[in-house]
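Our preliminary data section would be incomplete without showing what the modeling component actually yields. Below, a chain of 480 amino acids is followed by its predicted structure, encoded as tokens that our downstream tools consume directly.
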Amino acid sequence: MNIWKRIQANVFPRRKGMYGFEAASASRRTYGWNPSTGDINTLLAGGIESLRPRSRDMVRRNAWATNALDAFVGNAIGVGIKPQSAHPDSALKEKIQELWLRWTDEADATGLTDFYGLQALACRTVMEAGECLIRMRPRLPKDGLSVPLQLQLLEPEHLPTIETRRLENGNYLRSGIEFNGIGQRVAYRLYREHPGDVSNPMASTELVRVPAEWVLHLFRPIRPGQLRGQPWLTQVLLKLHELDQYDDAELVRKKTAAMFAGFVVKSSPGSPILGEKANGSGTPVASLEPGTLQILLPGEDIKFSNPADVGASYETFMRVQLRSIAAGMGITYEQLTGDLTGVNYSSIRAGLLEFRRRCEQFQHQVIVFQMCRPIWRRWIELAIITGALPKQGDVALYYNAKWIPPGFAWVDPLKDIKAQIMAVRAGFKSRAEVVSELGYDVEATDREIAADNARADSLGQSYDTDPRPDDSNASDESET
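Predicted structure:
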């Protein structure tokens, strides 16, 4: 028997139902389980047109979905992921930082927010719709910007998924993205206006070819070769939809049951009851008021309403379902619901540690890599070309920057600050790293501390927060 026949005999048994893995078997437990073998782009091309509007609909009308997005954006972006120039020339570095700070207020092409507000909006769009497009728009000198560059955020509907074909120049289109022969993105086909904006008199279905160097495509890749992003609610959309319906049904049921205080049984339909009135449909209804002493006629009886109650099962059921939804969205149950019942310091810290690892992964692999670094590079180029920044030495040094995300506030700051102090004193980390983890620039912090100390010294003031050694106390101790 040759080797191939031996492999067939051992790996691919002839007997029906004999498999090396139970999950690969064709049995009663796997009956009807026939998942698609298509790649991620095939799956998204067939389902994204339904997933995206359903995700947006759920965020619009479901409080849990809205809160989940707000919680993640608030933690991942906060007040913004800010750059710290790493140029070796301190004077030039300060000029870069000052110019950047001035430009952040001019960054938004619509003028509604600043650069860090655009970060938050892009993050929210990636979560809700799966992806976000950013056009870098060069401007003219007459526009009066500190650096002639602005950013325009576009929803993914501007990039059609049906544009897939080979082009005459040898390139090919896949889901609206143009690739060259070696698979590099060279351009995007974008609608001039949002195709779903029926209220826009300028609405057009015209597609415009925009070079890829001026377009940023933000999404979280989950499989190799992925071209478009999927909404973060994908795994929990159906559960959220049905749970929302169930919760509404329970509310309506309780409301309906509470409307009926009781029912009067009458021996004769014609005998009136005290306070009896007819409603709109002509059905007699008797109302109750505080302090009422109701006298019943002979043969009448009252049956009080006693609706069934869901009891303790409702709360337990809802909690289990919401935990499943929170896990599917990558946040904690407490962040999703605001329910802190039974939470202690250790449990909430353990949950937050896992959540913050996910936040940091998204911050650096998506927001910083796909958005912040390309914008910083383009901004530096235009600033040097227009003379807003002086060109000195190696231009490559201008591009070096450290992006600092907002710091996470801990449940017990005292314990964490003590732990940071011990780590610095033991040589496990630097002060600069500690300050960066808090979301600040260590050089700016040091300058502020020096300015505070100089001001206090000039006024002859001293504070307990001053960590500098007290020379007068030191001299007194040496004399004794």
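The chain has 13 helices and 14 strands. The CA atoms of residues 323 and 333 lie 5 Å apart. Preliminary results of this kind motivate Aim 1 of the renewal.
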